[in-house]
Design goal:
This protein is mostly helical.
């Protein structure tokens, strides 16, 4: 009986610690909006370059997805900055710094590796690389996001393996590939954030 009580108390402490560590500045609407942005970008690619292959199509592909990435970063970091403006305690600022630091390496390395792959002409490796780096970023942020996001992380990792370690290069630059990861993934994260806030 004492053991059961101790285990129950330990679980309660763990849950409280998780709530303290979780970054409340992540926005469910912003995550969902960035997912919708990826889906709209995919539909745009489907219209102008469904399967990027020629030089012109590759340039269009890069323009579409770089623009989508910039919009998604602006939406999510903008939402976090707005949250920080109205939450100025030392704890809130510490949470914001931790969240920014945990995801920053994936963003910075993602940009650098993207440039390197484009310079080498290895365009078909781009989606898998983006999925891999985002999976790493989500894993690094695991204490600050809802527990269910682990499944989203696993999904991104599976897509990364699929497009980096298997012969899928013929379809890697298809219009639906990036939305499959970032569209559904960000919508799922938005739903998880919404659910976690509604039960808080």
């Amino acid at each position: 009986m004492e053991l059961n009580r101790a285990l129950s108390d330990l679980e309660e402490v763990r849950e409280r610690l998780a709530r303290v560590q979780r970054f409340e500045g992540y926005s469910a609407p912003a995550a969902a909006a960035s997912g919708l942005c990826a889906i709209l970008a995919g539909l745009t690619q489907a219209w102008v370059a469904p399967l990027a292959a020629t030089h012109g199509q590759l340039q269009t592909y890069l323009t579409i997805w770089f623009s989508c990435a910039a919009a998604a970063l602006a939406i999510n970091y903008g939402a976090a900055a707005i949250w920080l403006f109205s939450h100025r305690s030392a704890h809130d600022r510490s949470q914001f710094r931790s969240a920014a630091i945990s995801i920053a390496p994936s963003v910075i390395l993602g940009a650098a590796i993207t440039v390197a792959l484009c310079h080498a002409g290895a365009y078909t490796l781009l989606p898998g690389t983006w999925f891999a780096l985002y999976a790493i970023g989500l894993f690094a942020s695991r204490s600050q996001i809802p527990d269910g996001a682990l499944w989203v992380t696993i999904g991104f990792a599976a897509l990364a393996v699929g497009f980096l370690a298997t012969p899928l290069s013929d379809i890697a630059l298809s219009w639906w590939v990036v939305p499959l990861g970032f569209g559904t993934g960000q919508l799922a994260i938005g739903a998880l954030l919404w659910e976690s806030r509604s039960h808080a």
